[in-house]
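Sequence of NAD(P)-binding protein (Rhodofomes roseus).
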Amino acid sequence: MPSYLVTGASRGIGLATITQLLQDPKNFVIAAVRNAESESIKKLASEYPKDRFAVVKLDYADYPSIGKAAEDAAKILPNGLDYLISNAGVSYQESASFESIDLKVFEEELRINTVAPIEVVRQFLPLVRKSAVKKVVFVSTLNGSLDFAPKVATLTITYAMAKAALNILARKWAAVLYKEGITTVVLHPGWVETELGLTIKDWWAKVNPDLKPISVKQSAGDVLRVIWDAPLEEQIKLYNHTGAVFPW
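Predicted 3D structure, token representation.
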């Protein structure tokens, strides 16, 4: 039974991802969330048995909770964790200009979007190493591409910087994990109809009014196909949700 742990799983892309995974009776899914009592998680817990679905508390803003979540997951994953999907993230200053960036807030964005994933991966690596599949996934964004940056110079500046840092973290770490047979995947889930995604709707309406966001269901389905198809590589790629490859 393939095992998956998805962070930020109580809403948006994370919730859509675990919902789709649970539809396959062969999968065992762990939702890693800040609030295990959220209505979305309680609903899934009422629909699926404990031998198919589990919940661990994990907050990217609280590093000790990450280690505790890994300990809790280890108790229910004797054969290791096949897929670790680091999906959680924040964007606090979508409309900030370079002149108006709040540096203290930006430090928190970096801490959650870039630093916390380091702790997530290293705490769960022992479980990934034990598994059969061995895949580590970072949900990032095209907006973190250095090549793409000039085309969207004023779009979510601080979020883009944090994700660009995440991208280099993943690409460097991937070359190390490759030697252990661990596949690292970095992907852009698309512009998605989520709470975060809709905050940039007005920006895109001015720049490209023909561009429309995709549903969380489509994004989750596309993302999973990219994850399943991604090969073991030393020099990893930045994937779009469609499977296309973006420049770093």
